[in-house]
Amino acid sequence: MKGLILKDLLQLKTYKKTVIIFVLLALFLVFCENSQNPPIFITVLLTFWFGMFGIIPFSYDEQANAERYIQSLPVTKKEIVLARYIHVFGIIIVGALAGTILSIVSCFATTKEFLDIREVLIIFSTSLFGVSFLEAIEVPCFYKFGMEKGRLTFIILILMAVFGVVTAATAIESLNITYEQIEGMMLKLVNILPIILMLLTFVVSWISYKISCRVYSKKEV
Amino acid sequence: MENILEIKNLSKKYKEFELKNVNFSLPKGTIMGFVGENGAGKTTTIKAILNLINRDSGEIKIFGSKLEDNEKEIKENIGILLDDSFLSEYLTTIDLHKIMKNIYKNWDEKLYFKYLDDFKLPKNKIVKDFSNGMRMKVRIAIALSHHPKLLILDEPTSGLDPVARNEILDIFQDFIQDEENGILVSSHITSDLERVADFITFINEGEIVFSKTKDEILDNFGIAKCTEEEFKKIDKNDFVKFRKAKYEYDVLIENKTEFKKKYDVQVIDRANIDDIIYIYIKGEK
Predict the structure, then answer these.
(1) Which CATH number does the domain B3-212 belong to among 3.30.200.20, 3.40.1080.10, 3.40.1190.20, 3.40.50.300?
(2) Which of A134, B131, B188, B201 is least surrounded by Cβ atoms within 10 Å, i.e. has the fewest?
(3) Residue B115 to residues A76, A188, B123, B160: CA-CA distances in angstroms?
(4) Interface contact A71-B98, CB threshold 8 A
(5) How many domains does chain A have?
(6) Which band of pLDDT confidence, cut at 50, 70 and 90, is reported for residue A44?
(7) H-only helix segments in chain B
(8) Minimum-distance CB partner of B72 among A13, A57, A76
């Protein structure tokens, strides 16, 4: 399994320069921003970008028609899926950490103040959860339908999710709950929100992994 | 002779193709050529051997054990070369070494780099920049560098020049010298098989036509060149198939000696594997 994780990482070598350019671009955007605002978006942006890099090995494998060869190696189907999940979600964590460090550093560089630790944790866990949630839907779609059809299925699922959120928001509005009340509830949760989000990230990724294993075990190559 | 690979009654049905009751075995210390036209069922059989598809029925034993009982352990001892499937070409030969070192327990670093040197393969260039022949050599080096006992090769010499092909065929012959290893090689280059194979298994439309020793095939099969009158005298049971050429009939026969005793046909040519496949597929009965 270690070999498969290494394979995915080594394939990303060709993106070394792109990653550096993206990080520099993110930093540039931070310094162009109003220095009074904490550079939250750098964490979100880098987590999202790294998340996109994480799924690149799917394309490489599809291009090389590698599935058949990989399954011929002394690795089980579960190990193949697990290796991919460790890679994809590992890269997301690296992206979220890199983004968080950069936002702390850039905040200090521009305001000479450190970000509040609670704020840092919330930004980190929200970015991590958001991108992990997207990938948790996307990865089983790739296993089931391949890259091209998988992306299309992913977009349909996301549109359905957006529709669901909009419907829920409308329902909340009809219950006469004000945004101030929601904000109040969120403030009460502020201390445990990062833990809840990180737990949710783990749960969502685990469910996604289980679905992918099921899909992949039935797949004939 | 003990078998390194045994396939019994293997069947697999798809919408438009069916593998029907495939049976053959590969004894230790031998090379088996697996031949047939495109779409005959060679790749499907190889997929079934490697447990890449769910078979409908049948049993496959490798090193005396069922693959599904001990898949990981068995695959540690198989060297694979698949015609149309490999890892990304954006990796270098060094990258491939790093990956395989962490996949195969018996990965032999020295042997791998020896093959790279012997094949004159660069170490820091991505495989994408290699010629077709060089890419094939990388796959062969990987298939051999973990000291496998069984090699399953799908078109290993395609894209190679004659010098490289001979070089590779010599390696395959060395590989089976210890009488413990075996090679199943699917190839369209039948001259290569005639050079190195001990057995030839011919598959057509998902069915095994024959699985015999190469010598048995080359010594016994023949093509009788008959006139129309001569052909009319031949009993249907005494030939495999025939092709009507412009001025004569090419009749594929399975036993030249018996045929000569029975019929007065002047010319009986030696049939090579290509001739047998061609007349069998295109001929009539």
Answers:
(1) 3.40.50.300
(2) B131
(3) 28, 65, 11, 16
(4) no
(5) 1
(6) confident
(7) 42-49, 71-76, 93-101, 109-118, 132-144, 162-175, 190-196, 214-220, 228-233, 256-262, 273-282
(8) A76
CA dist., res. A96 & res. A100, Å (int): 6
Q: What Å distances lie between residue B87 and A12, A89, A151, A176, B48, CA to CA?
A: 13, 22, 22, 57, 20
B32, B26 Cβ separation under 8 angstroms: yes
What whole-number distance in Å separates Cα of residue B66 and Cα of residue B54?
14
Residue ranges, CATH 3.40.50.300, chain B:
3-212
* One-letter identity of residue B92: T
Please judge whether B75 and A72 are an interchain contact, meaning their C-beta atoms are less than 8 angstroms apart: yes
Residues 232-271 of B with CB under 8 A from A: none
Residues in B touching A63 (Cβ below 8 Å):
88
A198 lies in which domain range?
Answer: 2-218
Q: ipTM score here?
A: 0.90
